[in-house]
Design goal:
The protein has 602 residues and is mainly α. 77% of the residues lie in helices and 0% in strands. Helix 11 (199-214) packs antiparallel against helix 12 and helix 31 packs across helix 32 (551-564).
Length: 602
């Protein structure tokens, strides 16, 4: 064919066809070398060279030229070449003659071909003859054939034979990536079941995952990324997640998304979640749903939650329930909670029970609380405690509180602590109160402080007669509770500060308690202000305390107004103090009231 012009463009490349005088490329040289080798082998085979016939047959077989390969392999096999017998078996297997292939593999295997023994073992396993399969695969494995070792390990693992690990390890050590991955998985499962998790075991697991991942095993890269993420090596974890995700592992794409989100890159996270969700990962679909829900895009969020549900992730139904509940669509929320709960979702069961309880259906709520608690929901166990306590069934309530407390539920630990205090079991009460206080419960910190306060010996006196004050553990817990907004603790901290002579600190805590509604805080703040000469301001706080039912504050107000000569106002507050008590206050207020009444009538 003639070509117009002196140069012609290669199709859609923009490059020019090179003149024929140029040197050939490396690929062309390889092709030329292979062609020359084939010519040499053919000439040697025609002279009856067995090895040449075997190698030529193998070359043609690899190329897919079965018709050309078969006569060469048969001729070499007839001359006793075991490699040719193995390759002839492969050829016949490809042609669809498995039994004839097995015959040639047997001949080669008996002659010592590890590859043929492996092929023969695979053949017997496919037909269900496991004893024969094991025999030939073992022959192959013991000769060092990596595929034979892996196939033998797979067979033994299927039968739960302890010897499988030895051969899986042998295959992994010879570079078989699937063997390395499966060995890592087996060791990983054993470590989790044993719960010992020794450093050596963890290192070995990581080593095999790393070996498989380095050879392109995408699931190994996923697991390696998870190990590194757990260890805090986020940068390297991200690299392996990325490698796995690019190879099509949806779970890795999802994990990479969470890693990016935690790093503050929500937009990139969404890209990977989208990729994983489109590949059918329900967890990623849920993550996308939550992302859109946070942005107020409820319709898009619902679409992704439904996609998660379609992918078989029951969290999708639970999240749909949460979404509907937030929107006030109670009936739909109940429907989605039920769907997830019936599928075994424990938090959905707990949420369903709460929904039913809020609707007044106590009898309907209790079984779902029980189901969720038995499945391990700590919140459900606590809620069952509340349910039984509301009925006066204290022992049942305590049992569930203890169960939730054992799992780390702060409020449950508080309730157990209170119950043990009522029973007089102070050591057990203290243990639970410490757990609850450590978990951030202000009430637990206050109650723990009172327990420790009751044990506190009198403060030692300085040798010159001055009191030496050192902050005790109970004061630290009072301060912890006070800082968390506990009003009684704030009053107590104020009292301790006042006892030290720190008027400013005492006033600060009394004021904080009073402004939060503590009548004792308001009364004590009034006392402090009165001692400092600010009686008008003190009267303001005593009025607030008295209005909240504080008898001593009412008595103080009665005395203030009596001293000012406002007898009617004084009598009014004295009457209030008598009504509020306690007995000692009522008695003093009664005498003052009578005196004021006589003064008024005189």
């Amino acid at each position: 064919m003639d070509v117009m012009g002196d140069k012609a463009n290669l199709f859609e490349t923009g490059r020019f066809v090179q003149p024929s005088s140029e040197e050939p490329t490396r690929d062309e040289m390889g092709d030329m070398g292979e062609a020359a080798e084939e010519v040499r082998l053919r000439l040697a085979a025609e002279t009856g060279d067995t090895e040449a016939m075997s190698v030529l047959g193998a070359m043609l077989l690899r190329r897919g030229d079965l018709d050309g390969a078969e006569p060469q392999l048969r001729a070499a096999t007839a001359s006793g070449d075991r490699a040719a017998a193995n390759n002839l078996g492969v050829l016949l297997h490809q042609r669809g003659y498995p039994e004839e292939a097995a015959g040639w593999w047997r001949i080669a295997a008996v002659a010592g071909s590890a590859a043929a023994a492996h092929a023969l073992g695979r053949h017997h396993r496919e037909r269900g003859d496991e004893p024969a399969a094991e025999y030939w695969l073992r022959q192959s494995a013991e000769q060092g054939h990596v595929l034979g070792a892996y196939a033998l390990a797979d067979l033994l693992e299927h039968r739960a034979d302890a010897g499988s690990e030895q051969w899986m390890r042998a295959a992994a050590e010879r570079g078989h990536r699937e063997a390395a991955y499966r060995l890592a998985r087996a060791l990983d499962r054993a470590a989790h079941e044993d719960e010992s998790g020794s450093d050596n075991a963890v290192e070995e697991i990581e080593q095999w995952y790393r070996q498989a991942a380095a050879r392109g095993h995408r699931r190994a890269a996923l697991h390696l990324g998870a190990i590194l993420e757990k260890r805090g090596e986020l940068k390297e974890a991200g690299r392996w997640y990325l490698t796995s995700a690019k190879d099509g592992e949806a779970r890795a794409a999802c994990a990479l998304g969470f890693l990016l989100r935690d790093a503050g890159d929500t937009e990139s996270a969404a890209v990977w979640w989208l990729r994983a969700a489109q590949d059918g990962d329900g967890n990623a679909a849920n993550a996308l749903g939550a992302l859109h829900a946070e942005r107020g895009e409820t319709q898009t969020a619902e679409r992704w939650y439904r996609a998660a549900l379609d992918a078989g992730d029951d969290n999708g139904a639970y999240n749909l329930g949460l979404l509907c509940a937030e929107q006030g669509r109670t009936a739909q929320a109940e429907q989605w909670y039920r769907r997830a709960a019936y599928a075994g979702h424990r938090e959905a069961a707990n949420a369903l029970a709460i929904l039913l309880l809020q609707g007044g259906d106590t009898s309907g709520a209790e079984p779902w609380f029980s189901k969720a608690a038995e499945a391990g929901s700590v919140d459900a166990a606590f809620n069952l405690g509340i349910l039984h306590a509301g009925r006066g069934e204290d022992q049942f309530a305590l049992r569930w509180y203890e169960r939730a407390a054992a799992a780390g539920h702060t409020e449950a630990a508080l309730q157990v602590g209170i119950a043990r205090l009522r029973e007089g079991d102070e050591p057990e009460a203290e243990r639970h109160l410490r757990c609850a206080a450590g978990g951030g419960s202000a009430e637990a910190a206050y109650r723990l402080a009172t327990v420790l306060d009751a044990r506190r010996p009198p403060e030692p006196a300085h040798e010159l007669g001055e009191i030496v004050h050192e902050k005790t553990e109970c004061e630290e817990w009072y301060e912890r509770a006070a800082s968390l907004g506990h009003r009684r603790a704030q009053v107590r901290v104020g009292m301790l500060a006042a006892a030290r002579g720190d008027v400013v600190e005492a006033a600060r805590w009394y004021r904080a308690a009073a402004e939060a509604g503590s009548r004792n805080g308001a009364f004590n703040l009034g006392l402090l202000l009165a001692r400092e000469g600010s009686e008008p301001e003190a009267a303001v706080w005593w009025t607030r305390a008295a209005d909240a039912g504080h008898g001593r504050a009412a008595l103080r107000l009665a005395l203030v107004y009596a001293r000012r000569g406002e007898l009617a106002e004084g009598q009014k507050w004295a009457d209030r103090a008598v009504a509020l008590g306690p007995a000692e206050v009522a008695e003093r207020a009664g005498r003052l009231r009578d005196a004021l009444r006589e003064e008024l009538s005189a």
